[in-house]
Amino acid sequence: MFTELSGGETKQQVREATEMPMSGVEHKRVKPPEAIASPVPSIRPQATGQSGASVTRTECPSPAFPDIPTRRPDMHECTRDGKSVPLKRPVVDERINTASSAFDLFCMSTSVRGMSKLRTGPRFLRTLWLVYVTSMTGLLITASVLMVLDYLNYDVTVHTRVLLDDRSPFPALTVCHHHPFSYEAAHLWRRNQILSPTKFNRYLRQTTLGMLSTADYRLYHFSLMFDTLNIYYQNLVPEDAVRLGHNTSIFWNCMRMVDYADIQFEHDCRLLTGYRIRQFSHPVYLNCHTFEPLTRRDSESITFFSLIVRMGPKESASPAEDHEQAFLPDIFEQAKGLRVAVHEAGSRPDLRKHGLHVEPGKLNEINYEPIRWKKMNTPRRPCLRPNETHQFRDLHVVYNYSQAECIELRKQEKIMANCGCIFMEMPRPKVPHIGLPYCANVMHNFTLDELVRRMGCLANHLMNVSQNSDIREACRPVCDYYDYASTISITKWRAQSWKIYWLRVQNMLLQELATAQAVCSDCRISDSPEFLRYKHYLSRESFSQLPNISELTELSPTGSIDQVIGQPSEQLKLDGDEFAYVVLKRKSDNTVEKYEKLVLSLPVLLSRLGGLCSLSIGLTAAFGVELIEFLYLLLERRRAGRRRKVKSTRRLQPIAEPTVGNTGFREHCNNRVDKGGITSECGDWKRQESDALAADPNSQISKMRSCDINSLLDSRQNLGRILDQCIRRIVSEALVEQRTAIKPYKSAACQTLRDNL
Predict the structure, then answer these.
(1) Distance in angstroms (rounded) separating the CA atoms of residues 618 and 606
(2) Within a 13 Å sphere around the CA of 124, how many CA atoms are in the beta-carbon half?
(3) Are strands 362-374 and 591-598 parallel, antiparallel or unpaired?
(4) Helix, strand, or coil here: 285?
(5) Polar residues composition bias: which ranges (predicted)?
(6) Residue 58 half-sphere exposure, CB side, CA atoms within 13 Å?
(7) Which domains does the chain have, with CATH numbers?
(8) Checking phi first, is residue 109 left (phi over 0); if not, alpha (psi -120 to 50) or beta?
(9) pTM of the prediction?
């Protein structure tokens, strides 16, 4: 640093180095105190021994520069006789355990954007960076909390894709008649075995008249409100309601196609291979029938299913014989034809939601598109994979689990428990009886007060939103299920009566021959009556002329028309409104899959958090390693400080009384000065030392001061190093303590050194 001790250029360089501003700290030249104002003794050559060899002098701290060596544990001190000995008391940095020291270490250890700017620079810039780091950290924490809460909500979105050449299970088809009464119903009403609609309407009018006669106007509209088909159904015995409805004989013919090649016709739909028919009781349509595949393998191979359905008996043209003079409010919903629904096999059909009207006398083609739903099982909205244990019962029919039916069943159980009746629109886990009737039953043990109580209780449970929300939470949706989006197209069917008849006869004869062959495998089939009837069919020249009753009777071995398989042409009702043709087919072999995905999945959450951290304060995954590094360095610093403190305590000698030349006391005073203040006893010692030096320049104190200065300024290199240490010391202390001006006692040492150069 210095190349020449004697010369104006070198001294000028030293003065410029000591006077330059340091990191924004205002440098003030302070006059050195009197204790160190005396001129520095000249540097004399070091004494040599007898051999003439130069003896190296160990550096000693100078009283004129108390601030420099007290921070250096490797420095030495001079005794009374001018000898240099190591300090017995190691220097301990008392600030290593403070919060500011830990903060400085953290700023140096972390890569967080802006943290390193908080230690250096002007106050304005440090304040600016502090505001930036604080605001960005607050923004980061707030946005991260909101993002995590959004993730824990587990919101999902529905994605759609088409699976090509993916055979889905063939759906079930439920068929109900708008006119629900069968041919047998009129005979039952005529024999008074079952209450007819006409008599039920008469009973309602008489009851209303009795209410008005007693001035009870609570249900003055009783006869109008209760004169509906579903109320009539609720006042029947469940077995009688089944007897009044249609049975499977209403279906003339069934056909199915497998893999676009194998076709099967059946005159009795119960014989259709791979299918089963389930009959259930409905409060509006009485008996409905569901055609559904038996197994999943059978359902995946079916491509086409058709039905020829009769419409049932016509309404009586004679008012005297009409047993259906009732149901006046139903005039707005009465229709002619069928009500069909396409739904998943094994499930309870919802005719209100999925029902389609089928026009009689027309070809009604129903095309469906299978939709596979895949729900996501999340903690907030869990789903269920049902099995046999989750099935429920509606009267005598068992259905598979569904969320909608689970909700309805829970409501029904509450109504049964609190109202003492069964609501006909929901699944009925128990068969109604006198002790637990339908809620609208007015025929058995009827009182007006009881009816009013039931209606009020029923309305309360149906309109209780909070209770219904609890039920919806208890019933989970199914994870995987199929839905069938169906469309119907109607056109004129140009089939002729003789074609329908002979197709039915052919199916009957073939089935009869197969049965006879199975019963008697050794018998000659040509001698059987089944073969004679089949031969009559095969040898017939024209199909346009249908056989009459007498012709069919001759073919029967006993002459009984009941044993004749087939119907004579006189009994066929093939008018335009007497039948309906229903076709159910796939649109394609493709399947539309709708599956749920999380809006904010874990990878997306991490990606967004990473972008937010990078945008705000530049926080990365390495911050975790930096935090560990900071804790490690902080712990090691505190451990080193404790070790030095223990060592200092062991080596520390008692401080002697304040006498002139006492180096231990001098070190004590220097430390007190370094802490920012000087006591009266230390000030007295300083003055005594200065007075002794002025009275006797050759005294022991003068020798010690000469020792100190000579040891510090022993060479040009030592002089440059000491001056550089002085400057750096002042700068670092001013930055750490955040002071705008250097203390006089710190700048005095460097100023004295500069003036004496």
Answers:
(1) 15
(2) 1
(3) parallel
(4) coil
(5) 45-59
(6) 13
(7) 16-89+652-756 (no CATH), 384-478 (1.10.287)
(8) alpha
(9) 0.66
